[in-house]
Amino acid sequence: MALHALDRRRFFAGGVALGIGSRGFALPASNRGATVDPTGGPGTVPTLAAALELADRAGGSSFTIRLGPGIITEKCVVRAPNVTIAGSGPQTVVSFGAAAGLVRPDGGKWGTGGSATLTVEASGVTLRNLTIRNSFDFLQDRITQASGGAQAVALSLGRGADRARVESCSIEGYQDTLYVQGRAHFSGCRISGCVDFIFGGPAALFNRCEIVSRFVPGAEIQGYLSAPSTPADQPFGLVFADCRITREAGVPDASTYLGRPWRAGGNMRLVGASAFLRCWMDAHIRGDGWTAMGFTDPTGQKRLFQPAEARLFEFGSRGPGAGSAAIGRRFLTASQAAAFTPRAVLGDWQG
Fold it and tell me: Pick from 48, 98, 276, 319: most CB atoms within 10 A?
C-alpha cells in the first residue's frame, strides 16, 4: 500500500479491522451532518469512518458528511440510507490499496467486491465532488504477479445501493474500477481504468461523463470499458449518454474495446446490455467495437459469450473511434435510441 508521507490528511480508518470508532462524538442536532477533519477542528470528527457511524445513528434521516481537500486513506462502507458524502473537488481523495488476491488483516483474501475503497450498501446515497481511488499498484503487479488477483475496485455500489447518485466525481483504478450492483445515475464524472473497469448487472445511466482508458505498458489489447452482466428480463443495463471516451498518453490507436458481455458465474440468464449514445470516441477504440468473454456454463463446459449474442449497441457515435456498422458492432435507429430515456432506464426513479 502506498503511503502519502507529505499529506497531513493521511490516516487509516474504516471497515474490516481498520475502524476507528466514533464513540464520544455527539450527533449534531442542527443539520444532521458531520465534517471530517483529522487535525481535530472544533465540532468535527477525525475520520470518514467516524462520520459514517454517526450517520448510522441518524435513523435514515438525511445526513451530510463534508470532506475538505487532501488524501483520506480509508476503506469504508456506507450502511445508512440517505447519506451524502460531499468533497470540495477532485483534490478531496478517498484512497486505499487493496486487490482481490491480497490478504486481509484477518487472514482471508479481499476478493473482488471486498477490495473496494468505498462500498455503498444503502439506498438514496449521494457522492459528490470527490475522488475515489484504489491505489493498488496494478502495473507493478503485472510484472511480479505477486497479488494472485489484480481486481481492485475503487467504488462498489452493492445490491442494497438502489437510487445512488454520483455527481462530479473522479473514480480511479485499473482493473474493475467501478462495480455497480444497484440502480445508479452518474453525472459529470471521470472514470478511469483498463480491464472491465465499469461492470455489473443493474440499470445505470452515465450522463456526460468522461471514460478514460489507462495505459498498460506492453499490452497489445489495452482493455475493455464495460462488462455488463444484465439479467435477460431487464431491458436496460449500462447506458452511456453524451459521454467522452478518451485515453491516457501512450494508449495506442485501435487497442481498446467498448466492452465484452460478462456471464457472471456462468449464469445463462445474464445477457449483458451496454449502450453508447451520442458519445465522442478517441482513436483507441477498435473498429470492431466489442469482443467475446469466456465463461463456464452450468455443465462445466468452457464457452465464449459472443457480442452478437448480447445486447451491445451504439447510436450517434462520433470522433476518430466511431466505427461503422459490422456483425459485432450494431447501431440503433433514431427511434430505438429515443427509448433510452432516464425514466425508461432507471424505472420509477429518474435519478
Answer: 276
pLDDT digits (tens, 9 = 90+) for 197-209: 999 999 999 999 9
Burial bucket for residue 221 (CB in 10 Å: 0-12, 13-18, 19+): middle
pLDDT of 117 higher than 70? yes
Chain mean position to CA 316: 25
Task: Tell the CATH superfamily of the 75-90+107-346 domain.
Answer: Single-stranded right-handed beta-helix, Pectin lyase-like (2.160.20.10)
d(CA 94, CA 307): 35
**Model confidence over 58-71: pLDDT tens digits?**
989 999 999 999 99
* Whether 176 is catalytic: yes
Question: Which three three-digit cell numbers place residue 177?
Answer: 474500477
Closest CA to 222 of 199, 256, 177: 256
**Residue 311 to residue 96: CA distance in whole angstroms:** 34
| Active-site hit among 37, 137, 162, 196 | 196
Closest alpha carbon to 174 in 128, 210, 133: 133
* Helix%, strand%, coil% for the chain, nearest 5: 10, 35, 55
Domain assignments of the chain as residue spans, ordered by start: 75-90+107-346
Q: Which of 176, 242, 253, 348 is catalytic?
A: 176
Q: With CA atoms as reference, report the closest residue to 134 among 214, 235, 22, 37.
A: 214
| Residue 348 falls in the annotated catalytic set | no
